[in-house]
Amino acid sequence: MNSIVADLSSASTAQLVEAAAAIATHLAQRAAPDSGSACMELVEQLATAIDQTEYALAGLIAVVDRTGEPKHSGLPSTQAWLRCHLGMREGRAKERIALARQLPRLERVKAQMATGTLSYGYAATVADAVHRLNDEDCATAEDIMLQAAADGLSAGKVARLGSKIHDLVAERNGEDKPPEDVQRGYQRSWVTVSRSLDGGCYLKGWLNPEDTALLDGTLAPLAKPAGKDDRRDLGERTAAALSAVLAGGHRNSRVTVIANLDTLTGDDTPGWLRDGTPIPAAQVRRIALNAGISPLLLGAGYEPLYLGHAVRIASAGQRRVLETMYDTCAVQGCETPGFLCEVDHVDGWALGNSPTNIDKLALCCGWHNRWKHTHPDQIQITKNDEGRYRYRALPPDGTARSKPGGVPPDHADNPWHDQHAA
């Protein structure tokens, strides 16, 4: 599009969206001015325009959500559509859906967003706070929260005000239990985790009396002030207490961090999580101070932890190593998570060929494990440079063939793949 519609009042919604997209494309290719004051003015103007665009976006999302259009494309929900097709983080997708659903009840929020006098952050905060209130209480809460925003309270403080309003409404109505839409999960306790853009997260939830007692008994002693110079508030101390419990104070909590010995002794080489996420070396050493360390002695060819033929069942340590090496079943195309798989003797224990050594073990889902050992002539086994095995099914004659694109021709009629697909 090389020209912008001049008569905006007569343009269709599609034409306006096209014009906005064209402007955004050209704007993204422009360098920012050198003047800091000029940039401040432009940022404020652009931010207001973005907030108004968010209002228009909420209206469009509301129609998509109401009509159930994503399901026609094979997606389970509007949230899944926003996450998969638009790349939104889960927290942002939930936030936008909540705003789209609540805007019809928030007349003042709608008017202020449309004119650019209310930011998206405040609007989303109000929408999240009122979704469990009836229409009358919603209108009252909207007035109170918008006035708080006008008085200069931050979006975070307005959100806490919204939570307080909800609690007061529940108390007024004589409610001694959480609303119906939160009576879910084990014994009604629930917690939601929303990721933030900086890698952190927001926690929100409700615990029943039994779970609350467990929480208080575990965190309360750790959340006390460390001394007269401890200026943290209760929320900060509680978060620190929770981190202490998760880091090493609970025997059932476990996070696998993989690192070289040099990293633990001062090297800058980062560690990594099982999913490949890098962890800075300094953070690895900090975690190691409070964590149990399982040494993994690697020789040439990645061959650790040998138990030989004396033991058939892999040890807990070996299984942890295998879960680190295998995200999924060793079978090509099988997506069963590694932690749900069985430990498989690559060459078959019953044949006496495969000792319980880490270089002769792999993770294999239960069904494929049994199929592999009843059809040994239909298995092709390879091993990469890092010591990981990969299993591939062969036709009944045991000859590896492939179609263009590397897809094994036997996938359509091989019982291995039929059973897994079922």
TrEMBL record:
Which stretches does UniProt call biased (Basic and acidic residues)? 410-422
- Where is each HNH nuclease domain found? 317-370
InterPro entries, alphabetically? DUF222, HNH_nuc
Give the span(s) annotated as Disordered.
384-422
Q: What is this protein called?
A: DUF222 domain-containing protein
